[in-house]
């Protein structure tokens, strides 16, 4: 049953409205108020529509309407006017009322229909407003997330020295730009190139925020000259203070490439092992980086010392760092996962190492949208005599 708040100071007009609505198939409940002041005390959340006369003892015209709209912003408003001020009804609709009626023209059918239409229009307006607010919030969130994504800090001189870099990032959350996976690449003033890739356990905005905090902390520490266990220990401190639950941990892999681009130091912290390609895919070797892992993930054990993996690279090499979203995709829609060995086979079958081709093939194997976050960084060095198909 509908509830109508009738604001009308003329008892005769109020009686007429009540009589007209009494003939409806389901008569509404009518609450009568003679003034705006009185209506404030009688307006409740149960009221579906306010029917208001614009000639009241304590407010008239559009000022009366503005006070009603302020008082009941989520309720439909139907305005009653006299013959002499019918133009006021049009102005009232422009000011925010859902409809208006001229008292002398009102009958039972017209009044009932006008109230029903006013309620439906108000509902439609509220839905439209909520959609607009949601779209605005989505745009703002997208801007915020986009601002937290990394921009590699690499000197263009490195391209002339043969260094090549690719990175891809696919959040598993629907309509998201940012996830718990993170990556970054920074070159320090000494010429060394530093790369990180990590994965905060879990999915959602809290994990995405934590991933962004860890990435920014990593970049700051690297630029301040911290590396190795010193850097990892500080990152773990950040993790323990920023995480929402003590069960949350983070796996990651860091790599420092020496300025000569022929040697690297890695720390694989409970993370999937990187893949190293030496001498090109067709004639060279594609294999897991030896000596992994360096130790457990961040946030599980205290006072951990992670071991350093010293790795000679040579003149012609590629290194693929990735999160488990790449290797935990199912194959052919079945229960079997791609895994590290499957990734190696895929790279060998393609005859080259290119992130876009790898990710496209993985998604085709999965046959569905990837449900896990995925981040990958491909960095390498190619001599001028190397075959085409190197990362770009």
Strand content: 15-25%
What is the name of the CATH class of the largest domain? Alpha Beta
Mean pLDDT across residues = 86
Output the CATH homologous superfamily of the largest domain. PPM-type phosphatase domain
The string of secondary-structure elements, in order, is EHEHEEEHEHEHHEEEHHEEEEEEHHE
CATH topology assignment of the largest domain: Phosphatase 2c, domain 1
Helix content: 25-40%
Structural class: alpha+beta
Backbone shape: elongated
Q: Can you tell me the number of structural domains?
A: 2
Low-confidence stretches: 387-392
Distance between the termini: 67 Å
Polypeptide structure, described:
This protein starts with a strand and ends in an 11-residue tail after the last strand. The protein has two domains: 3-141, Response regulator (Rossmann fold), CATH 3.40.50; 152-381, PPM-type phosphatase domain (Phosphatase 2c, domain 1). It has helices spanning 11-22, 36-42, 61-71, 86-95, 108-148, 157-160, 205-223, 228-242, 339-350, 355-366, and strands at residues 3-7, 29-33, 49-53, 55-56, 59-60, 76-81, 99-102, 163-170, 181-187, 193-200, 250-257, 263-269, 275-278, 285-288, 309-312, 317-322, 374-381. Residues 387-392 have low confidence and may be disordered. It is of the alpha+beta class. A five-stranded parallel sheet has the order 2-1-3-6-7. Strands 8-17-16-13-14 form a five-stranded antiparallel sheet. Helix content is 36%, strand content 24%. The longest helix is centred in the first third of the chain and has 41 residues, at 108-148.
